[in-house]
Amino acid sequence: MRKNNLTAMGRQGGASALVILIMVLFFGSLLSLVIKVGPAYMDDLTIQEALEGLDGTEGLSRMGPAQLRTLINKRLSVNSIRGFDAKDITIEKDGELVVINVDYEVRNNIFRNVDTVVHFQHRYEMKGK
Fold first, then answer.
1. How many folded domains does the chain comprise?
2. Least C-beta-crowded within 10 Å: which of 29, 61, 104, 119?
3. Within 10 Å of residue 112's Cβ, how many Cβ atoms?
């Protein structure tokens, strides 16, 4: 009598079509999410850089809130920030210190009635020259 002794290589099989399909769907969904949400994070980084660049601006502490808002809007338009409302920025003055609060959210449609909501909140304290 002969034993049916299969070697390890003979027993191994590849991934089934179902497993490959599930992997493709998972990574495709993940890639789609990154493509939809990624630009919101990139715009937020640009907004942060524009606002941090205000620190040390000549006459910053003497400017009124309307002038600061205009200056911020100019910086954001130069950096091609779309869909950001300047009303989401609050400006407070505490003597020589200017406090800028940014609080906004970005909504993106993923598919049909599924949306993502990304909330950003930043606080900057700066002085002018």
1. 1
2. 119
3. 6
What would you report as the CA-atom Rg of the chain, rounded to the nearest whole angstrom? 26
126 and 102 Cβ atoms separated by less than 8 Å? no
CB 116, CB 49: distance < 8 Å: no
How many angstroms separate the CA atoms of 103 and 120, rounded?
A: 6
Within a domain: 2:
no
Quick one: pLDDT band at residue 65, thresholds 50, 70, 90? confident
- Name the average pLDDT for the chain: 86
For residue range 10-56, list pLDDT tens digits in order.
666 777 889 899 999 999 999 999 999 999 999 999 999 988 888 87
Domain that holds residue 75: 15-127
Can you list the alpha helix ranges (DSSP code H) found in the chain? 8-11, 17-52, 65-78
d(CA 77, CA 43): 12
List Cβ neighbours of 111 (8 Å cut-off, separation of 6 or more).
none
Distance CA 126, CA 100 (A): 8
